[in-house]
Amino acid sequence: MKQRDDMKKKAFKLILIIVLFVPLAARGQAYVGGGYMTSTNSDSHDVKGVEVVIQSKYQIKDSRFAIMPSVNMGLLYEYVNKEYLESYTTTLSIAANGSFDIIQSKWVIFSLFAGPVIRWEHTFEPGSESTFNEYEARANKSHEWGYELGVTLDVRISDKISTRLIPFAVQRTLKEQSSLLHQTSYLTLMIGINNTKKN
């Protein structure tokens, strides 16, 4: 079990290095930010939370197309700090997106992105006492496959710094060995470092 956890940590670090640093070395862009998320199963109501998003973007030559992988880490917290605690959930998703620049100028870029996604979910439930520190992990782990799509608005502040707003993005995934459809929506504000050539 310990070896498996160590391998997962090493694999996750490798993914972060690829998403963050490879695009910079290849004259791309790397973005980091956070925002608000909601998660819905086909048999339950919305659960709210927060998330951190790491994205990169590698433009394909001088075209409007780009490769845009992303890593999302979230915490669904709706039941935390209520009188009767039920559960809280951590999420991790990795998407291999492609994007298309609908509007492309030197200072503003509006893009549509989409691609396959894999999502892991780990739910924690209260132990013997209903306090956050007494939560313990139950056997409620799952991973899901699906797709992600959304839009981005990039505003370049300088040749090296830009901001990115993701006003809408959604992940639709199907749980392993289950017909349960899962949908996650998020709104994110990010800041990025550019290493692209000047136009």
Keywords:
mainly beta, Porin
Largest sheet: 8 strands, antiparallel, barrel
Q: Give the DSSP E fraction (strand runs of 2 or more residues).
A: over 45%
CATH fold label: Porin
Structural domain count: 1
- Silhouette: elongated
Strand-pairing-aware structural class: mainly beta
Radius of gyration, in angstroms, nearest whole number: 18 Å
Number of helical segments? 1
CATH class category name: Mainly Beta
Helical residue percent band:
10-25%
Q: Quick check: average pLDDT?
A: 77
Low-confidence stretches: 128-133
Architecture per CATH nomenclature, i.e. the level-2 architecture? Beta Barrel
Q: Could you give the order of the helices and strands?
A: HEEEEEEEE
State the separation between the terminal residues, measured CA to CA. Answer: 51 Å
- Which strand order do you get reading across the main beta sheet? 1-2-3-4-5-6-7-8
Number of strands: 8
Organism: Reichenbachiella agariperforans
Protein name: Outer membrane protein beta-barrel domain-containing protein
